[in-house]
Amino acid sequence: MTFSPLTPELVVAFEGIVGPAHVLTAQRTEALQYETYGRDHTEDFHFAPDVVLRPGTTEEVSAIMRLCHEHRVPVTARGAGTGLSGGALPIHNGVVLSMERFNKILNIDERNLQVTTEPGVVTEALQNAVKEVGLFYPPDPASKGSCFLGGNLSQSSGGPKAVKYGTTRDYVLNLQVVLPNGDIIWTGANTLKYATGYNLTQLMVGSEGTLGIITRVVFRLLHYPQHNILMLVPFRQEAQAAEAVSAVFRAGIIPSGMEFMEREAIAWSSDYLKIPLTLPEDITAHLLIELDGQDLDQLYKEAEQVYGVLEKYDVGEILLADTAGQKDDLWKIRRNIGNSVRYNSVYKEEDTVVPRAELPTLLKGVKEIGQRYGFKSVCYGHAGDGNLHVNIIRGELTDEQWNVGLRQPISEIFQLCVKLGGTISGEHGIGLVQKPFMHIALAEANLNLMRGIKQVFDPHGILNPGKIF
Amino acid sequence: MTFSPLTPELVVAFEGIVGPAHVLTAQRTEALQYETYGRDHTEDFHFAPDVVLRPGTTEEVSAIMRLCHEHRVPVTARGAGTGLSGGALPIHNGVVLSMERFNKILNIDERNLQVTTEPGVVTEALQNAVKEVGLFYPPDPASKGSCFLGGNLSQSSGGPKAVKYGTTRDYVLNLQVVLPNGDIIWTGANTLKYATGYNLTQLMVGSEGTLGIITRVVFRLLHYPQHNILMLVPFRQEAQAAEAVSAVFRAGIIPSGMEFMEREAIAWSSDYLKIPLTLPEDITAHLLIELDGQDLDQLYKEAEQVYGVLEKYDVGEILLADTAGQKDDLWKIRRNIGNSVRYNSVYKEEDTVVPRAELPTLLKGVKEIGQRYGFKSVCYGHAGDGNLHVNIIRGELTDEQWNVGLRQPISEIFQLCVKLGGTISGEHGIGLVQKPFMHIALAEANLNLMRGIKQVFDPHGILNPGKIF
């Protein structure tokens, strides 16, 4: 794929579309601000865009795409830049299309339990807005306080509540999308059921900005669960924590959160946040278990059942969060593990996922591979979904070890995932950094189908080039 | 698209692949049996296959597809033939690929709450098998006693429980698929989360046998809900029944069934089944409401809330089903409405779907259009999903009226659906009979994307030609 350079004429044309204030170039933008548009939260990568555009309407996006399609200019859409696979990095330069001005919630439809929103709304802002009328938008990636809904859709994001409520994919009903040639479509209908041709809505979810630009979203909503119970369960043996996860589900309970945290994950995060937490010497891992629902008595019954399951394991003293403040603190600790690891060291995050009951085998394998290749990892994640985030710490590794040497052990981790019935990404996407490993999870025939689909949507290959495959 | 005729050499080659006993032709098969392979449950259509093949393994399917791909022979996959949109009709003749021998449940994985199965298993047989170990596969189309899982996947089937538990789409984790060129792929992984490139699994669901042949399926399962409460609620005004549907959801209750039945729907079905049912003169419609869960006390609480909502409407005496037998009877009546209508008259079934709260407007519109164009309709369906099955009764309509005259009013019904945020099929698919109406729901740009995707999977257009678009 060869692209055309960005010409001064094109910059003028962009100014005509979005207004000069929303056309940012390196020459006329404060350096630190401009640099942000070339980064996301993936390792320490940076790629400079030729120009950053901040459209405000679907029609502006359409006009931009039409021009770029015609002139073969790469376009990388960008949400809040919190991605962990490099999906928003403009590796072929060109246009970064920042969706930050698509920040309006358009309609909360209480009659139909739906919301129509722009994609540049922060996930938590949507959650708060619908909560005000008693409604619930469950998907809650760790970055929910800053990430955008559009990014969640592009990466098929999950979060702790996915274990009970499903991921972003399970809430989207309909998408307005600008295709690379500038055409504006709606992918489906605002209905709970849909059997009207190929499901373009579901195809867009997880397509990482390579097929079209999402400009509007219709999500379904639930009623906000009135009550919850949160417990932090310390384990003396890591493997037992992983085993207890599937035991809880096999007892017929579906927690609204089932998070696994290695000792170091929880220790680093509580230090980073300066939230004190007692961590006895012999504790090697924790489960953070949340139950939620409309009826508190019912939740207490379920909590007793959970206790019954946990009794069979070698657990320390279970902390049952008493107050809203204590609950917030525990979730804050869980959500800031990634930040605290980043604060301690450059790291690579692998988003491994396996069938739930295979988690102990995966965890054991990761540690064994780490030992063999001499790297340290901090593991945590959405254990109820079999989704383990493996953070490989740079520490004292040389450039050579870091950039080249880790290829083989990471491949082995992914091969283990696939052998266990899993895959190489559960909720972060492939983006740039997992691309070299796609052949481990997918046959050449699968990749060819994906390339073919890409070609149908984007014949000139201008949208987020160089990602996924 | 031009296809090649079936040659005697090809028939011999097929015999070599599946064995002569599983190659059926009109010449050597009992007429009534052979004719079955040219029909489904859609109106009174019949198209004769040139040959019917009954493969027993994935490798046999692959070998058949490779041959047909090479020789440009149309292939129409067939499940149990219970489809309502003509999806399994071999309108270009050629091969009918009957999946009836793919009837084995391969592995119920209690540790991971998953099941691996062949697609020719009857839906209810799967439900019963997993129920024996306390597990639950929720999707339950009306034809669950005879339809195949593969058909459910192809049409994105729902059923009454979809309102709480989602449709077939929400349970499939991974599919083994034979592509038109004979390649065998798995579309994803056996995991609850998946962000590893374009979601081919979800693309296959609802693709109506036009992209590939499903040969194995991995579904996720739930724990079987121990208890349920079922109530039949008679309404004096049809519109109020439709209104009460969204009122129940807005009260924060999620029933496991929320079915709407016009007076005639329920009367015809109870007559057909010879299950007596008291139907006072002034009753025009019913809601069948089911609540389910693990805790009976909790269900009684919810039932009280439902009664509280219903009090606001002009309802007759609510029948609370006392025994398992009574519950079975009520569900049997609901599930046999389609059969009873078919028993009374040839009919066209429209699978309209709108956002839930728009149901009263849709129902009113359907009746108004019927009055204007002089046809009678019997309406019923999954009201909780906004999914209304409109059965247009042939009655005394002439061939001209039936075949041509109904185009315009059906178009108007679908236009109303789309205006209300809905679409032209919720769970039956497009197949043959809804194809002429696709442009009402979808823009040309959408249809072009679908055609492009079809071309990627099936460059010679041999799989189920003439369907969807």
From TrEMBL, chains A, B:
Entry-linked Pfam families: FAD-oxidase_C, FAD_binding_4
Family annotation (PROSITE patterns): FAD_PCMH
UniProt name for this protein: FAD-binding protein
Domain FAD-binding PCMH-type as annotated: residue spans: 45-224
SUPFAM superfamilies: FAD-binding/transporter-associated domain-like, FAD-linked oxidases, C-terminal domain
Cofactor entry: FAD
KW Nuclease (keyword) present: no
Keyword list, A-Z: FAD, Flavoprotein, Oxidoreductase
Organism encoding this protein: Hymenobacter setariae
GO terms, molecular function: FAD binding; oxidoreductase activity
Keyword Flavoprotein: yes
Signal peptide positions (record): none
